[in-house]
TrEMBL record:
Belongs to the azoreductase type 1 family. Keywords: Flavoprotein, FMN, NAD, Oxidoreductase. Homodimer. FMN binds at S10, M96, Y97, N98, F99. This is FMN dependent NADH:quinone oxidoreductase. Binds 1 FMN per subunit.
Length: 200
């Protein structure tokens, strides 16, 4: 039985453009995997606390020496990592806010990136411990940035998840959503066509 982890980072929950694209893919994935399991982590409904000094110290401390607050913070991180490791495939709904990823997603990333747990340092650089798996990113943007220097998201996502050991990352872009109804409808239609090809 396959497990699909869906991470939504839109401020608008399931109503966000990136969330709707992610849902469209999940619907087709369920059709191809009737016995599959879908885990959904909606970062607007269940925000992850931003990384603090106390939490970071807890990551580094021996478990027997952690304070109650550090134990609680590490438990949040452990649960997120367990979800990630349990998944056979990943979906990320990714809106662009002010040329970057949502701060809620960055908080999730900060809790998932733990040396010795999801990656380790080697002489040749970080080595991922999560294991490679297909990852589908549905990026919704008001402007048009793919393939330009203004697209800060694509290299960040590739670099971060690559550090964890995930390199099979496939992007679907819906761009120009704030450039008029005609452009937005065309972008959504093209993204849905891409989803159909991914799910085929």
């Amino acid at each position: 039985m396959k497990t699909l982890l869906v991470i939504k980072s839109s401020l608008f929950n399931g109503q966000g453009q990136s969330s709707r694209l992610a849902d469209a893919f999940v619907e087709r994935w369920r059709g191809n995997n009737p016995d599959g399991r879908v885990l959904c982590r909606d970062l607007a409904l269940e925000p992850v606390p931003h990384l603090s000094a106390e939490t970071f110290r807890g990551f580094q401390a021996d478990p027997v020496e952690r304070t109650p607050e550090q134990h609680a913070a590490v438990a949040v991180s452990d649960s997120l990592i367990a979800e990630l490791k349990s998944a056979d495939e990943l979906v990320l709904g990714l809106p662009m806010y002010n040329f970057s990823v949502p701060s809620t997603l960055k908080a999730w990333m900060d809790h998932v990136a733990r040396a010795g747990v999801t990656f380790r340092y080697t002489e040749s650089g970080p080595e991922g411990l999560v294991g490679d798996k297909p990852m589908y990113v549905f990026a919704a943007r008001g402007g048009q940035y793919a393939g330009t220097d203004m697209d800060t998201q694509t290299p960040l996502i590739r670099m971060f998840f690559g550090m964890l050991g995930i390199s099979d990352i496939r992007f679907t872009y819906a761009e120009g959503l704030a450039l008029g109804d005609e452009q937005a409808e065309q972008a959504r239609a093209q993204a849905v066509e891409a989803i159909e090809r991914l799910a085929a």
